[in-house]
Amino acid sequence: MKQSDSEIKALVKEKYGEIAGQSRSQNISSCCGATSSCGTEVYNIMADDYATLEGYNPDADLGLGCGLPTEFAKIKEGDTVIDLGSGAGNDCFVARKSVGTSGKVIGIDFTNEMIFKARENAEKIGFENVEFRQGDIEDIPVTSNAADVVISNCVLNLVPDKTKVFSEIFRVLKQKKHFSISDIVLDGELPAKLQQAAELYAGCVSGAIQKQEYLSIIRQTGFVNIEIQKEKKIIIPDDILLRYISPVELRQWNTSGIGIYSITVYGEKPCCELGSLCC
User: Fold this and answer.
1) Are 154 and 122 in contact (CB under 8 A)?
2) How many Å apart are CA 176 and CA 22, to the nearest integer?
3) HSE-up of 41 (CA within 13 Å, CB side)?
4) How far apart, in whole angstroms, are the C-alpha atoms of residue 254 and residue 256?
5) Rounded distance, CA 188 to CA 210, Å?
6) Pairing of strands 130-134, 104-109
7) Which residues are 172's β-sheet partners?
8) Residue 37 to residue 153: CA distance in whole angstroms
9) Does 264 or 87 have the greater pLDDT score?
10) In sequence order, what are the residues at sequence separation of 6 or more whose Cβ sits closer than 8 angstroms to the Cβ of residue 277?
11) pLDDT digits (tens, 9 = 90+) for 26-41
């Protein structure tokens, strides 16, 4: 039976509340942040390496991302940046390095445990222009036309109503400003057993939608100059897949040609909105 939006949100909130209490090493050696081990190997399916980026804070890196949106986000000194699904603050602290003391970074997260951990990390560093707000990114707790840049890292795939999220991103961005978002998308339909697997939904790919549908939502929301800044194929190890499908189904999956991809996508809010004056 398909889960309702409220059930999905409750599952995500519970899951990431647990993850907030884990270390990065625990998350890396598990199934995209799941508390149980994925097998004999140690790997993180999705995450890219932040260690070389300026502003990186290891205490804030839980290994839960699927890209490096801050690397592509064209953040400038003095910008106001909003990070959707900010977790323990990893992308916020990297963004803060770019905005400097004259800018501002606002992290939004669904779970109280993550907000507490992020605020604790910010206090240890002594950042006064980085703040964290608890809220649902389908209803971003920020005023309209407030942000120069919106970023997000492997979060929108967990949200039931992606159209609503992109509408909210459009609302909070200033005209002529932009987003850079890393997320998981599909090329072909996942087998039903994987689509319905709750643990994969909360940690990996089962909430992802088709790449073309994802890009279509962005276009229909009103964004322009849309481009994929980076794309990589995600390979899920067989020992994870065998938790949900049989060996025969695994062989079919491996030869199906279906692809799971991490993409970093960019889009701009146009100068003129419907019913408004041109800037």
Assistant:
1) no
2) 39
3) 9
4) 6
5) 7
6) parallel
7) none
8) 23
9) 264
10) none
11) 554 444 444 444 443 3
Percent of residues in the chain assigned helix, strand, coil, to nearest 5:
35, 20, 40
The CA distance from 9 to 48, in Å, is 25
Conformation bin of residue 61: beta by default, left when phi > 0, alpha when psi is -120 to 50: beta
**Which among 227, 234, 237 has a CA at the least distance from the CA of 264?**
227
Asked if 253 contacts 191 with a C-beta cutoff of 8 angstroms, the reply is: yes
Where residue 158 falls among pLDDT bands split at 50, 70, 90? confident
Query: What is the CA angle 270-275-279, rounded to 5?
Result: 45
The CA-atom distances, in angstroms, between 172 and each of 192, 214, 218, 246 are 36, 20, 15, 45
Please answer whether residues 265 and 215 qualify as being in contact, where contact means their C-beta atoms are separated by less than 8 angstroms: yes
Q: Of 132, 139, 186, which Cα lies nearest the Cα of 161?
A: 139
> How many residues does this entry show for the chain?
279
* SS3 call for 78: coil
Domains of the chain listed by start with CATH number: 5-268 (3.40.50.150)
Instruction: State which amino acid sits at residue 225.
Output: N
Residue type, 180: S
| Token digits of residue 108 | 């939004």
Residue 212 to residue 276: CA distance in whole angstroms: 29
Token pair 């909003």 in the structure block, residue: 82
Helix (H) or strand (E) holding 15, with range, is: helix 5-19
The reported pTM is: 0.82
Q: Per the structure block, which two tokens stand in for 64? A: 């839960």
**Token output for 192:** 């039903």
